Amino acid sequence: LRDDNQCGRKGNGTGKRWGNTTPSCLQNILKRVEEGSEREGTALDAHKELEMVVKACNEGVRKMSRTEQMISIQKKMEFKIKSVPIISHSRWLLKQGELQQMSGPKTSRTLRTKKLFREIYLFLFNDLLVICRQIPGDKYQVFDSAPRGLLRVEELEDQGQTLANVFILRLLENADDREATYMLKASSQSEMKRWMTSLAPNRRTKFVSFTSRLLDCPQVQCVHPYVAQQPDELTLELADILNILEKTEDGWIFGERLHDQERGWFPSSMTEEILNPKIRSQNLKECFRVHKMEDPQRSQNKDRRKLGSRNRQ
């Protein structure tokens, strides 16, 4: 279960997200009120309002930093293809980094040459992928792009050491309005998984309900705070409870935090797996109580309580 020692929310002016101690406070309250009672409804309503305030504050900080980041990125880009406007109020960076692009015919002789791979640099935004090559002067020459919704990925399996951590990226419609395929090599298994998750989120769970996802997943609890180092990572605070959605052999977890459903990658060393099924069940029960606020039936019951209160006055 979550740590019950604190019952306040931390804030800061450094551009980092606000803390997560309010859910702990709410759980302390929920343990002392009857399920389905008016007091429980009041606690859930208060939690919802607090979360709205926190999300608004976090979003304000994000927008300022995102705008600065987009301006900086656009200044560094030189287009070999038709220019794509990068700066947009509705666009932000999800992930950037260097990968190795496979080149040349797939012959056994070619696979042994050092020229098999060449460096490319990817900028992945929430709605757009830009593929570049780094050039002198801290600049990037753009040679291809595609809407994020038209990306597909496929992992290569059992291909030997040379093709370890290699995956296929397919652009269904690129900058030249045609399909393009890239064979890309990452520096590690976790980096490959992170790129694949960011480029094309798992569509098998896209339309699965939050409740169904919870029931299938193992859980971990944060035992060491962690500050996200990249956009696809998740900042963790002590006692955060998360579902494990994916795990790599080299020590990274892609997880979903129970109380706010935020997703991201984090080192497994920052967490401990919750092996006790009774504790996992209790965590789910508390999570379901919190998310009852999103239930339309609960909103109708709330309106009836208000109406009954007015009638008694």
From TrEMBL:
Heme among keywords: no
Residue stretches making up the SH3 domain: 215-276
Pfam family of the protein (one): SOS1_NGEF_PH
Start-end of Basic and acidic residues biased regions: 290-302
Keywords attached to this entry: Cell projection, Guanine-nucleotide releasing factor, SH3 domain
GO cellular component terms, A-Z: cell projection
Localization annotation: Cell projection
Residue segments, region Disordered: 1-21, 290-313
Residue ranges of every copy of the PH domain listed in the record: 92-204
Composition bias, Basic residues: 303-313
Primary localization: other
Designated name of the protein: Ngef protein
